[in-house]
Amino acid sequence: MCGIVAYVGDKKAYPILIKGLQRLEYRGYDSAGVALMTSGTHTYKCLGKVKDLQDHADGNILDGSIGIGHTRWATHGEPNDINAHPHTSMNGKFTLVHNGIIENYAHLKKELINRGYAFQSETDTEVLVNLIENIYLEKKVDAEIAVRLALSKVIGAYGLVISCTDEKGKLIAARKGSPLVIGVGDQEYYLASDASPIVEYTDQVIYMNDEDVAILTKDDLVLKNIQNDSQKPKIQKVELSIEDIDKGDYDHFMLKEIYEQPNSISDTFRGRISIDKTNIFLGGIIDVMPKLTQAKRIIIVACGTSWHAGMVGEYLFEEYARIPVEVEYASEFRYRNPVINSDDVLIAISQSGETADTLAAIKMAKEQGATIIGICNVVGSSIPRETHAGVYTHAGPEIGVASTKAFSSQVTVLTMMAFMLGRKRGLLYDELYKELIHELTLVPEKIQTILKSADYIKGIAELYKDATNSLYLGRGYLFPVALEGALKLKEISYIHAEGYPAAEMKHGPIALIDENMPVFVLATKDKSYEKIVSNIQEVKARNGKVIAVVTKGDETIKKMADHVIEVPDSHEAIAPLLTVVPLQIISYYIAVMRGCDVDQPRNLAKSVTVE
Fold it and tell me: Catalytic positions, please?
């Protein structure tokens, strides 16, 4: 969940590390640190932001052409200077940065204490760096062997970069369950948790696999696994530019990404919808289409916003493909004892492609014979490598912690899958199939229209920025959008918000409604329209404040709601892609007006790579 960056080469390492950590700030963190290897190892770390780290290090020795850096999101031990990374072993031989969790750290720590080791921090990472040193000193082996032997004793997940004072000019990296990318330069190598700190220097990368160990000097890269088997590095070109990870003229990444949705949705269906808009082709799942068309059940696993996208997928698959669908929180699914059959298809959704619980759910379902399809955004991430087939969303880098364009791109992929599957199963006749495809291609233009209302929506945000609670209501396809709208408000403005199926309001939440309660109602024209009108009347009868998202030209709800936000008319299957946009905008402006850190909300991380 935190960020790693490292460098070995001829350049000065410190500026590369600092800039890299700044590129990784979006992942979420509470402390930061660097270690620079010159005549000795110079470590600087502190609670706070990367800027605080720069202030802390200023005036100290910042030389050296090899170094490691880290932003920490606390798991073991509270956020403070001592628990910040990098960590150094008791005798000073090894310095290490670590993402992940060492589950058996308490047992290992007890053994090390019995061997005379003392600990300064509360972290599992300090246990690991001391374990490596203990093996190194006792067995009199080189650093690489000590690392591999130590990792064979570890239970858990890790992305590691390690230096040893006795082996100057060398870094050792290892990965299991936590991503690491190697950037290949000219007599230099870069390491990072993702490609964003690397693209400024090289577009040639190696995505490390689980149990890979890399030994790097400025002139050489050796890749092997923990068992000491040689691995052939697979160098790939990363499709990412500096412009992709820059805010440009926007105040926040989140706002930029909201406005990027017309393009990101277009990029998601570009090349997958025929030029004449009569057919859908998803090449990434062509090999599993027989399994998919004959599936007895589809299981969708995801977390957070991706879970909400999966819920939209449930409505779409059941409506158009007539296959039963279950949408599961990956974190619950993997710890139940779910019944999984060989004729089930599991669809895993993750923006980052690294979500720990989703990855674990995939592996469990694979072991039981299910066919696995992945939907994710990051090329080269773990989920595409674990699945039998998949579809990239092509949303582009999403830096804001609160997901916006990733959600709409995921829903776009699920929409295309449902339409294509319904057609292949003989359930969608030609005219409806073509109509639905045409409706989907109009979404980018319709979102552009919605974005022109941003100032009007900002005015509504001003009225409700001081609310302490809010409700979001929707029916059918729009119920998952209500959940997503509530999540966005919670994530970035810290206002308590809950999403409900509108009909469930009478089963409890209606007790909360009074003149201080804003109620966001998704009320576009569809088969539930008359019912949602009744729900709005029930809220108004209790003096609730209604902010309704309606189809353009709606006069009925306009007369009863306190505020209406219009979206262009569309087929009800397409409505989630339009109605979510005003909710993103209103959450953004409320958070800004409350002085919240929109792109890096407190306690949150972009990619949840630990359990």
Answer: 2, 606
